[in-house]
């Protein structure tokens, strides 16, 4: 299943770059269609029903595309997914596409936990340090974790940078015990 989503995501990322599309706009349009498909049982029934002729499905898709101002390559991807009965994978394809586009554009998603709310200047400083460490542009999301006592923990993918007081205390404890 993951390979199906990855295959379509990589192929569509190629289309986005080859056609010089706005990656954020294309991703947003796909998210919009995925949300619509997820929320509308009727739409799902029509698009996923093999008894409904393909041209009727496409007419409905074209109406949605026109109403929402969605670019033709996005429409074409959804049509291909319909034709190959891959619409149930659309949400996973969108997730994989986001990761693929981020990788190609040099972005890293960072989840930052701190013991207290960080100010704007602190956030900018932290993001700059992360960019230097990873050599990537950072998209950061912030959360609070009072158990850290102070400092911050940064997670980028499977890598964790622990600059928290709690982490320092644990490292000291390990050093003393060994």
Return the CATH architecture of the largest domain: Orthogonal Bundle
Adjacency order of strands in the biggest sheet = 2-1-3-4
Mean pLDDT: 92
CATH-assigned fold name of the largest domain: Peroxidase, domain 1
Total tally of structural domains: 2
- Residue windows where pLDDT falls under 50 for at least 5 positions: none
Portion of residues within helices: 55-70%
Number of strands: 4
Structure description:
- With 178 residues, this protein is α+β, with helices and mostly antiparallel strands.
- The chain has two domains: 2-103, Peroxidase, domain 1, CATH 1.10.520; 106-177.
- Helix content is 63%, strand content 14%.
- The chain is built from eight helices and four strands; from the N terminus they run ααααααβαβββα.
- The longest helix has 17 residues, at 2-18.
- The chain is elongated, with a radius of gyration of 22 Å.
- The mean pLDDT is 92.
Short note summarizing the structure:
The chain has 178 residues and is α+β, with helices and mostly antiparallel strands. It has helices at residues 2-18, 23-39, 41-48, 54-68, 72-83, 90-105, 120-134, 165-177, and strands at 107-114, 137-144, 152-156, 159-162.
Structural topology:
Blueprint: H1 2-18, H2 23-39, H3 41-48, H4 54-68, H5 72-83, H6 90-105, E1 107-114, H7 120-134, E2 137-144, E3 152-156, E4 159-162, H8 165-177
Parallel strand pairs: 1-2
Antiparallel strand pairs: 1-3, 3-4
Please tag this protein with its features.
single chain, 178 residues, alpha+beta, Peroxidase, domain 1, 2 domains, 8 helices, 63% helix
């Amino acid at each position: 299943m993951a390979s199906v989503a990855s295959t379509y995501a990589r192929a569509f990322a190629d289309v986005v770059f080859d056609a010089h599309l706005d990656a954020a706009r294309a991703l947003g349009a796909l998210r919009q269609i995925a949300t619509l498909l997820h929320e509308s049982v009727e739409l799902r029934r029509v698009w996923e029903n093999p008894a409904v002729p393909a041209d009727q499905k496409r007419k409905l898709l074209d109406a949605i595309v026109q109403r929402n101002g969605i670019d033709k390559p996005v429409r074409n991807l959804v049509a291909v997914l319909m034709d190959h009965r891959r619409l149930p994978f659309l949400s996973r394809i969108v997730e994989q596409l986001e990761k693929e586009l981020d990788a190609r554009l040099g972005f890293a998603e960072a989840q930052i936990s701190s013991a207290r709310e960080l100010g704007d200047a602190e956030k900018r400083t932290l993001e700059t340090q992360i960019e230097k460490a990873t050599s990537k542009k950072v998209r950061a999301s912030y959360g609070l974790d009072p158990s850290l006592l102070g400092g911050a923990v940064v997670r980028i993918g499977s890598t964790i940078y622990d600059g928290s007081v709690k982490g320092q205390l644990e490292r000291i404890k390990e050093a003393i015990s060994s």
